[in-house]
Write a structure and sequence with these properties.
The structure is a homodimer.
Chain A (H helix, E strand, L loop, with lengths): L9 E12 L2 E10 L6 E2 L2 E3 L6 H13 L4 E9 L10 E10 L9 E7 L12 H11 L12 E3 L2 E4 L7 E3 L16
Parallel strand pairs in A: 1-6
Antiparallel strand pairs in A: 1-2, 1-4, 2-3, 2-7, 5-6, 8-9, 9-10
Chain lengths: 184, 184
């Protein structure tokens, strides 16, 4: 660790938002990016200092799609240094659900409900791979999603399985010290 | 995103290394920290710019425990701003396996094989919670671990299930552009 200096990858979140019609998935939400790289992508963005991944996922979903999402779980973290052409980001990908119609806002020019199996639309970043992993993971007989701490508004949801979510009291989300020093 | 400025949490990894005796788990590895906060902890550390999470996990395990680990999968990401008393870190936790005896090195004063159910040893950071989640997740009938890209030496292993790992050619790990700009 001593050789580690002050340069770090940037933590981000991306959210696969399933739009539900009753118990059936109509599709997932894509946004059309206003900023480079152009094109279609999953909603997402940077994690703020002092913000949990889960809070960032809920916030970014709301900012870019106007949807209030319920987080289901984490699908995994993607960290290939080449995944973003601009700089090295590490994205923790969340699965979430929402009802209604997405509406592009903030940095999203527009938002659509999209069939994740549709390969006709080129996606930015590694989002095609993320969607392929998502489609692969839902093929199994047991939902294989690991939720650590999923925040929905003021509630905290914890469990290991999609199908067995339960609620616990709100976690403390105190701000951490900002001192930057060596960590083992 | 426009309000996002240049402050980000720091990406880290922690590794639960199962020490195997044949097919049976003898225990997991803890290290005794040389640096503050003192005490026992899972091996882990910062992710370098340009380094995947998986490469960081293998590297930190080797540096701190002298073990060459095989990654099994990601257990989830922990991002409570209070999880580290010094500053805001986001840790992606890996499950890994190794054989042999750990030997503390680098920033680890010593290393031991530990029964993760043993609550007599106070652990630094949120590592007791991580171990509790790990113990909980292994209770299920199906290993519920999501592997995105697991690096072991020069091979890249990808799959969704522990039991069905397969190998693919080494991924390109080109350095990303370092330009820092706004991301949607």
């Amino acid at each position: 660790m001593a050789r580690r200096k002050f340069r770090n990858p940037f933590p981000t979140v991306d959210i696969i938002i399933e739009i539900m019609a009753g118990r059936k998935r109509r599709g997932i939400v894509l946004i059309e990016r206003k900023n480079p790289p152009p094109g279609w992508a999953l909603p997402g963005g940077f994690v703020d200092y002092g913000e949990t991944l889960e809070a960032a996922a809920v916030r970014e979903a709301r900012e870019e799609t106007s949807l209030d999402v319920e987080l289901v779980g984490q699908l995994g973290a993607y960290s290939d240094p080449a995944r973003d052409p601009r700089f090295h980001t590490i994205s923790t990908v969340f699965l979430a659900r929402a009802a209604g119609e997405p509406k592009g806002a903030d940095d999203a020019r527009s938002a659509i409900v999209f069939d994740p199996r549709d390969r006709s639309l080129p996606l930015a970043f590694d989002h095609r791979k993320i969607l392929d992993d998502y489609l692969g993971s839902t093929k199994g007989p047991v939902p294989c999603l690991k939720t650590t701490t999923a925040v929905r508004d003021d509630r905290v949801v914890r469990d290991n399985r999609v199908a067995r979510l339960r609620t616990t009291p709100t976690s403390s989300r105190s701000r951490a010290s900002s001192a930057r020093s060596k960590r083992t």
